[in-house]
């Protein structure tokens, strides 16, 4: 199917396609909206189409469904998943709530609907500072990304931020030795890293930022070459926006994001895929955490 036929079918089916920066470029190329989790979550509340296709991993489809309970939400591959989303359990949250009276649970968006339902706030790497700044409670249980929590907690010395030990396996695998080697190989290139990397890696780079934060920071630097430490799918956006710059992307490949294929999007449009389902009681409670995130970012 050529791109024009796909667009026609999409219009006919009243569908909109969202894609994360980490999926393959052929999928990004046909999407209506491409962005990081925060952008996609905000955008999801504004679209008119009845059918939403989320080209990303499972928690992203769930998030879309929670924000749009009356719409049909589809994922190209229901098995495309984020391992970090499953590293925290409801029991761990309950134990922490019993231990502290004055506790807020802040969950990274890379978490299941069930975990969001047991949290007070959701956050993404793009808005984590604003969300933590909005929390009134003294104690914060930050789940599941221990690296993101550890990379941000110094900005809130007045809070007791307890970070869970979850992590993104592919960002966590980057080492400060990788950074040293890359700097030696490309001495004129500043290093930009995602805060899902370990704190010792973040300490050794020039800029830490969410996916959209990295893209913005690359746009501001005069450097002609940049080293990028996040999932390699970001290259498509970087090369499109900054064709005059050269990018060196350390090999960070998310298996779940790479399970998203164009052929599966076509199958959805032809009516051959099941849709995402989130039980109503879970959805209502999880939406509260997502709404608290969106409200914190408005102020
Ligand atoms: S890059 Fe890491 S955190 Fe993001 S979806 Fe993949 S495994 Fe999960």
From TrEMBL:
* UniProt enzyme class: transferase
- Going by the entry's taxonomy, the superkingdom of the source organism is recorded as Bacteria
Q: Which InterPro entries match?
A: NadA, NadA_sf
GO biological process per UniProt: 'de novo' NAD+ biosynthetic process from L-aspartate
Keywords attached to this Swiss-Prot or TrEMBL record, sorted alphabetically, are: 4Fe-4S, Iron, Iron-sulfur, Metal-binding, Pyridine nucleotide biosynthesis, Transferase
CC per GO annotation: cytosol
Q: What is its EC number?
A: 2.5.1.72
Gene3D superfamilies registered for this protein in UniProt: NadA-like (3.40.50.10800)
Q: Name one Pfam family in it.
A: NadA
Q: Which GO terms describe its molecular function?
A: 4 iron, 4 sulfur cluster binding; metal ion binding; quinolinate synthetase A activity
* Pathway linked to the protein: Cofactor biosynthesis; NAD(+) biosynthesis; quinolinate from iminoaspartate: step 1/1
Keyword Transferase carried by entry: yes
Q: What cofactor does this protein call for?
A: [4Fe-4S] cluster
The cross-references to SUPFAM superfamilies, in alphabetical order and at most eight, read:
NadA-like (SSF142754)
Tell me which PANTHER family the record gives: QUINOLINATE SYNTHASE, CHLOROPLASTIC, QUINOLINATE SYNTHETASE A
Query: What protein am I looking at?
Result: Quinolinate synthase
Q: Which organism encodes this protein?
A: Filifactor alocis (strain ATCC 35896 / CCUG 47790 / D40 B5)
Q: Which gene encodes it?
A: nadA
């Amino acid at each position: 199917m050529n791109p024009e036929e796909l667009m026609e079918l999409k219009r006919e089916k009243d569908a909109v396609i969202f894609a994360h920066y980490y999926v393959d470029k052929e999928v990004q190329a046909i999407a209506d909206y491409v962005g990081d989790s925060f952008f996609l979550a905000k955008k999801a509340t504004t679209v008119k189409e009845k059918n939403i296709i989320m080209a990303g991993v499972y928690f992203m489809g769930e998030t879309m469904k929670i924000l749009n309970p009356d719409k049909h939400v589809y994922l190209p591959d229901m098995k495309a998943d984020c391992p970090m989303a499953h590293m925290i359990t409801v029991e761990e949250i309950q134990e922490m709530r019993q231990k502290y009276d004055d506790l807020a649970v802040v969950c990274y968006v890379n978490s299941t609907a069930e975990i969001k339902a047991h949290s007070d706030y959701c956050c993404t790497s793009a808005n984590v500072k604003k969300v933590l700044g909005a929390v009134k409670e003294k104690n914060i249980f930050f789940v599941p990304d221990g690296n993101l929590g550890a990379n941000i907690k110094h900005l809130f010395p007045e809070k007791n931020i307890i970070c869970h030990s979850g992590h993104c396996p592919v960002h966590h695998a980057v080492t400060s030795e990788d950074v040293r080697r890359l700097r030696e190989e490309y001495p004129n290139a500043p290093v930009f890293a995602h805060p899902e990397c370990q704190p010792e890696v973040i300490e050794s780079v020039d800029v830490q930022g969410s996916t959209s934060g990295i893209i913005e920071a690359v746009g501001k630097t005069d450097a002609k070459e940049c080293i990028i430490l996040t999932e390699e799918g970001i290259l498509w956006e970087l090369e499109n926006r900054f064709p005059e710059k050269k990018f060196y992307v350390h090999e960070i490949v998310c298996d779940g994001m790479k399970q998203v294929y164009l052929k599966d999007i076509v199958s959805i449009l032809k009516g051959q895929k099941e849709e995402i389902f989130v039980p109503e009681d879970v959805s209502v409670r999880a939406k509260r955490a997502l709404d608290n995130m969106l409200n914190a970012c408005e102020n």
